[in-house]
């Protein structure tokens, strides 16, 4: 009997995604819970840049916590760097293992075909963070990035009194970022006293954001504002502004609220953070998958028809506006 009990584990190990740890430039990582309980269900999160602190501290920690609460196995997979083709390859491989559900970080529109493949294979598939509108995903949960852009635009208008020069940066080409850029510009169009001197690609890299900012400050000594749209934009911009001795003079608004971002608000280097509620879209995204698997809800007398999705198609989890005025609500005080 012990040999039979070990059989599912041996089969799982045999079909593990190579290398799930190390060995090449697209090293895959996995984190599991409930593995010792004999839980048969496995829910898989696939992202890119799996070591990014924002993903680790919010998305991944919440996904593990959800797995513990539901007593199911969860795995977190993806390349260590921002590598969308590697993320696509990971999803392709995961489809072959037939997980109970797939929770996919919508990093790029190029994910649409592989998402459609997962859905066609009968795997409940939910996209989070940024939508992939041309896919057949069962649901999307995340932030309205157009609203992020609008929030930053309104804040920058207020900070500058409607006059000045600004630049903005993020990851160019991503659906969510471009929506954010559009929201920012739509607000600024109403304020002709603010001049936009450029749109820049920092590739979610602190050093790149700092370098771009330093070049901007050199080319435009009268620059008065910077808007950031990825997690590393703010720290990079703040670094260069500090080194130029312009902290507080060049106003900064950006996204996310990691400890470093919060410290920069406390220090007066960043003036506003547009914070996403990442724990919400991760937890409820996973729960939607679970509800599909367990047929938690049904519509009228439709039964368990596979062509009818019984979860919300789109969920906007909202935004947090963080400034020096309310920073203490978000900073963890030592015990």
Helix share bin: 40-55%
Mean pLDDT: 87
C-alpha Rg (nearest Å): 22 Å
Number of DSSP-assigned strands: 12
Low-confidence stretches: 1-27, 34-38
Shape assignment: elongated
Structure description:
The protein is an alpha/beta fold and 335 residues long. It has two domains: 2-143 and 278-317, Response regulator (Rossmann fold, 3-Layer(aba) Sandwich); 145-276, Rossmann fold (3-Layer(aba) Sandwich). The chain has helices at 2-14, 53-70, 84-97, 112-120, 145-160, 175-188, 206-219, 233-243, 259-266, 278-294, and strands at residues 42-46, 73-77, 101-105, 125-129, 139-142, 164-170, 194-201, 225-228, 251-255, 272-276, 314-316, 319-322. The strands form two sheets. A six-stranded parallel β-sheet has the order 2-1-3-4-5-11, sandwiched between helices. A six-stranded mixed β-sheet has the order 7-6-8-9-10-12, with helices on both faces. Helix 7 (206-219) crosses helix 8. It is elongated and about 60 Å long.
């Amino acid at each position: 009997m012990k040999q039979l009990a070990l059989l599912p584990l041996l089969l799982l190990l045999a079909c593990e995604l190579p290398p799930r740890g190390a060995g090449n430039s697209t090293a895959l990582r996995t984190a599991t819970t409930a593995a010792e309980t004999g839980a048969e269900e496995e829910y898989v999160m696939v992202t890119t840049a799996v070591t990014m602190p924002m993903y680790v501290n919010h998305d991944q920690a919440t996904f593990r916590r959800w797995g513990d609460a539901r007593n199911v196995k969860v795995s977190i997979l993806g390349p260590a760097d921002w590598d969308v083709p590697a993320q696509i390859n990971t999803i392709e491989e995961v489809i072959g293992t037939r997980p109970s559900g797939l929770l996919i970080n919508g990093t790029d529109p190029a994910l649409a075909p592989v998402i459609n493949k997962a859905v066609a294979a009968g795997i409940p598939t939910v996209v989070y963070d940024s939508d992939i509108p041309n896919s057949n995903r069962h649901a999307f949960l995340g932030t309205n990035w157009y609203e992020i852009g609008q929030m930053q635009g309104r804040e920058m208008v207020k900070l500058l009194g409607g006059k000045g020069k600004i630049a903005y940066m993020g990851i160019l080409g991503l659906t969510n970022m471009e929506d954010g850029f559009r929201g920012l510009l739509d607000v600024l169009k109403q304020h002709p006293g603010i001049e936009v001197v450029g749109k820049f690609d920092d590739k979610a890299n602190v050093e790149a954001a700092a370098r771009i900012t330093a070049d901007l400050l050199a080319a435009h000594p009268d620059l008065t504002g910077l808007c950031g749209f990825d997690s590393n934009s703010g720290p990079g911009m703040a670094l260069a502004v500090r080194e130029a001795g312009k902290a507080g003079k060049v106003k900064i608004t950006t996204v996310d609220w990691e400890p470093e971002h919060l410290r920069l608000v406390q220090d007066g280097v960043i003036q506003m953070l547009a914070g996403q509620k990442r724990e919400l879209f991760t937890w409820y995204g996973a729960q939607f998958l679970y509800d599909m698997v367990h047929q938690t809800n049904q519509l009228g007398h439709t039964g368990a028809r596979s062509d009818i999705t019984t979860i919300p198609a789109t969920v906007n989890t909202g935004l947090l506006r963080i400034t020096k005025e309310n920073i203490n609500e978000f900073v963890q005080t030592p015990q």
